[in-house]
Amino acid sequence: MAGDGITAGRQRSRTSGGTGAAAGGLRVERVWTTEGVHPYDEVEWERRDVVMTNWRDGSINFEQRGVEFPAFWSVNAANIVTTKYFRGAVGTTVREQSLKQLIDRVVKTYRKAGEENGYFATPADAELFDHELTWMLLHQVFSFNSPVWFNVGTQSPQQVSACFILSVDDSMDSILDWYKEEGLIFKGGSGSGVNLSRIRSSKELLSSGGTASGPVSFMRGADASAGTIKSGGATRRAAKMVILDVDHPDIEEFVRTKAREEDKIRALRDAGFDMDLGGDDIVSVQYQNANNSVRVTDEFMKAYEEGTEFGLRGRLNGEVIETIDARKLFRDIAKAAWECADPGLQYDDTINDWHTNPETGRITASNPCSEYMSLDDSSCNLASLNLMKFLKADGGFEVEKFVKSVEFIITAMDISICFADFPTEKIGITTRAYRQLGIGYANIGALLMASGLPYDSDAGRNVAAAITSLMNGTAYRRSAELAGVVGAYEGYARNAEAHQRVMRKHAAANDEIRPVGLVATEIVREATKQWKNGNKLGEKNGWRNAQASVLAPTGTIGLMMDCDTTGIEPDLALVKFKKLVGGGSMQIVNQTVPRALRTLGYPEEQVEAIVEHISDHGNVVDAPGLKPEHYAVFDCAMGERVIAPLGHVRMMAAVQPFISGAISKTVNMPETATVEEIEEIHYQGWKLGLKALAIYRDNCKVGQPLSAGKGAKATEKAAADKAAAEAEVTKAVEKVVEKIIEYRPVRKRLPKKRSSETVSFSVAGAEGYLTASSYPDDGLGEVFLKMSKQGSTLAGVMDAFSVAISIGLQYGVPLETYVAKFTNMRFEPAGMTDDPDVRMASSVMDYIFRRLALDFLPYETRAELGIFTAKERTLQAQAEAAAEAAAVDVAVTGMASSAPVSSSTVTVAEIAEVKAVLPVPVKAGSSTELLEVVTGHASDAPLCFTCGTKMRRAGSCYVCEGCGSTSGCS
């Protein structure tokens, strides 16, 4: 085909499977590379030190120095790859030291397998394929899923799949096999899903005459097994999905399972047990290691619409043994989701209407994140494109390069099945026979924002649908070409008619796209061409792959590719933390924002002013010069302006017709969302043609990993109580604000003669001196820091820093503000100190301001900041009650002496009244925590089990920005 990056030479149609050489092969054309220049020689390389510390105590989790990466790779991306994907024991000669080694390990394996299995026409084509794939990985154009980087080219089994679907029948042997197979998958760090609907219900009899246990009871054993195995993997925590059909007699028990456990968690928490995520006592409750989903049918949804009864069928003979009110059950599902986020929904008839292999069997289950939906006992390997790499400077889209890139990726993914290993023989047989692939993308949220398009808009959905259609159409066209070279998938012959029908459905959906604008029009035009040519070729050759695409969460690999947004998600927030070379981090406004402002036509000076406003406030509301009609472009998943839940559902619905599988995404809903609103979202998911839908209501779970301060509790008040409390706060604040006088800061200099004290310190061997001078009334007013010799750069920087801090203190900046800003800052030197009160410091700044806090701040203020002396830590349990009783008095005294109000017009009681209801400041250690600080809203994402940093959502999973660990399976 003209313009294709890889063309099929001397194709020969084959109707059976197999991976042997055919009478031809693929001819590879150059796309990204430069003739005569190796991809590695085109970029500047540099050596870096990767040192990962625990933000809680400063201890070192990982250290590898002198690793080699391109200069344009971010610190975060390099850290993720070094800690997660480099193989070999750290500190040994076999340990990988360079990104070159990692890419070569994977790409060379793919090239060799491609040559051995007849994919390439000549050795020169194989070499060019090698170089093109290397260039794209090097420049973060795409990434394979994590198991490829973990395993390919190593001595470990060559497992390339991240997603697995298992099966279980109504027999004890099958149930025990399920436990074993799931454990093997968890051991490898991947996730699996299973439908338990074949197991007879607790309302049916056993052949011996007793009553069956039912699937929910067997879930208990699997949950305990997963909880034991998941934390022992060398790569990451595993994930699992458990599904039950809506007509199963135990469906009501299944729906309430996790909600009941959440009630137990609340009761145990109130009794004083540690029920936070990762807490010592959370293991005492059950069913916490799986996502639960109900598989609903069109029959049930129509009964819900009509308000009629729905029959629950026995598993032995399929007869109705009980009828229930469809609306009540649907409301119960919504109520359980409101209480604990489970269960999600999977829409069975929609899933199987797009099934390419119905003659082999129905699709009954999915992987844990719900994007891979295929036959039982099968697997899927994933790869995702970085869409921002195809956005032109003028706002256009690199259509031709996108098409060619999809061809390369699909070819590589299919080659991997030729050499891949699988955790069980059943999974290996099915996967080799149907060769399911899952190409997808990340950064659609960033691309839309950079293009000046709101995520929740017809124009935004239009572009997303067009890109997805082009990707899937190209993938299937490439699959048809591969079938002409190395044969169609083994199961194609018996499913040919059904497969062709689904291809026609995809093409028809593409014809329904009504592009708006030149960019969308160009993309849709090419997508139409790909579907037309691909379907024509597929009718002749068949297809090499039963499935081609999914939209995965792209957690770790999204960080590897330096993506601002994961999967199909919008931007999490407009501000984030950026890691710096040598350690530490800084808060920045996402780089997509200024690009979007320029696209919208704002001059550079306005761009700078708006970015500064966002940096200060975390949102665009009232940004200087920003037109209100452009606010929606910068709406995010969290923050002041949040994308409405239905906006997320509409985006999923726009792209679903162009995905072989489904979409990993959770629809976030505010804490104030009602059961009725969740029910409506579930219903709209079915009406709009989604295959799966999960919701998450903020703070619906007890396990709050981030407290707002000492003794902070997660509220469970109803919406009306919350509104009343907010009104009370507003009234109290207004009462004080009315009395505030206009005020300008005045510098209060220290007297010529003042008392001071000097402390010598050592942080990881780096020595220095801290001199602090006080006002006569004991308030800190001056700081001097000495490190290194006079005249050195470090000494000069420390002198300047000391002057800046001293002037700030003299102008009335509270010391606790500096302490909150500079403690937990991480950079070298970091480690042990010689101070018994501060045994570990994550940097010199961290130590200095902890020491100042201990010397000059009252206990109550330090308690809010989490800073204690060694003696206080020892006696903290006994002293806590007394300290809390005295906290308000001490804090009010400090507030009255420093607050910019007239003491004659504002009473101490009024200040205390406001202080009691205002939120306690918190520190931020990740983008999610930063957003919580800016917006005042909690996000109950879990803490990373590897490094302790707050994780952020990526699809229906979570990803750690610090070390790249994920809670899912991508």
TrEMBL record:
<feature type="domain" description="Ribonucleotide reductase class II vitamin B12-dependent N-terminal">
    <location>
        <begin position="50"/>
        <end position="140"/>
    </location>
</feature>
<keyword id="KW-0547">Nucleotide-binding</keyword>
<keyword id="KW-0170">Cobalt</keyword>
<keyword id="KW-1015">Disulfide bond</keyword>
<dbReference type="InterPro" id="IPR000788">
    <property type="entry name" value="RNR_lg_C"/>
</dbReference>
<dbReference type="Pfam" id="PF08471">
    <property type="entry name" value="Ribonuc_red_2_N"/>
</dbReference>
<dbReference type="GO" id="GO:0050897">
    <property type="term" value="F:cobalt ion binding"/>
</dbReference>
<protein>
    <recommendedName>
        <fullName>Vitamin B12-dependent ribonucleotide reductase</fullName>
        <ecNumber>1.17.4.1</ecNumber>
    </recommendedName>
</protein>
<keyword id="KW-0237">DNA synthesis</keyword>
<feature type="compositionally biased region" description="Low complexity">
    <location>
        <begin position="7"/>
        <end position="16"/>
    </location>
</feature>
<comment type="similarity">
    <text>Belongs to the ribonucleoside diphosphate reductase class-2 family.</text>
</comment>
<comment type="function">
    <text>Catalyzes the reduction of ribonucleotides to deoxyribonucleotides. May function to provide a pool of deoxyribonucleotide precursors for DNA repair during oxygen limitation and/or for immediate growth after restoration of oxygen.</text>
</comment>
<dbReference type="InterPro" id="IPR050862">
    <property type="entry name" value="RdRp_reductase_class-2"/>
</dbReference>
<feature type="region of interest" description="Disordered">
    <location>
        <begin position="1"/>
        <end position="22"/>
    </location>
</feature>
<dbReference type="InterPro" id="IPR024434">
    <property type="entry name" value="TSCPD_dom"/>
</dbReference>
<keyword id="KW-0560">Oxidoreductase</keyword>
<dbReference type="GO" id="GO:0031419">
    <property type="term" value="F:cobalamin binding"/>
</dbReference>
<dbReference type="Pfam" id="PF12637">
    <property type="entry name" value="TSCPD"/>
</dbReference>
<dbReference type="InterPro" id="IPR013678">
    <property type="entry name" value="RNR_2_N"/>
</dbReference>
<feature type="domain" description="Ribonucleotide reductase large subunit C-terminal">
    <location>
        <begin position="161"/>
        <end position="696"/>
    </location>
</feature>
<feature type="domain" description="TSCPD">
    <location>
        <begin position="759"/>
        <end position="854"/>
    </location>
</feature>
<dbReference type="GO" id="GO:0071897">
    <property type="term" value="P:DNA biosynthetic process"/>
</dbReference>
<dbReference type="Pfam" id="PF02867">
    <property type="entry name" value="Ribonuc_red_lgC"/>
</dbReference>
<dbReference type="InterPro" id="IPR013344">
    <property type="entry name" value="RNR_NrdJ/NrdZ"/>
</dbReference>
<dbReference type="GO" id="GO:0004748">
    <property type="term" value="F:ribonucleoside-diphosphate reductase activity, thioredoxin disulfide as acceptor"/>
</dbReference>
<keyword id="KW-0846">Cobalamin</keyword>
<dbReference type="GO" id="GO:0000166">
    <property type="term" value="F:nucleotide binding"/>
</dbReference>
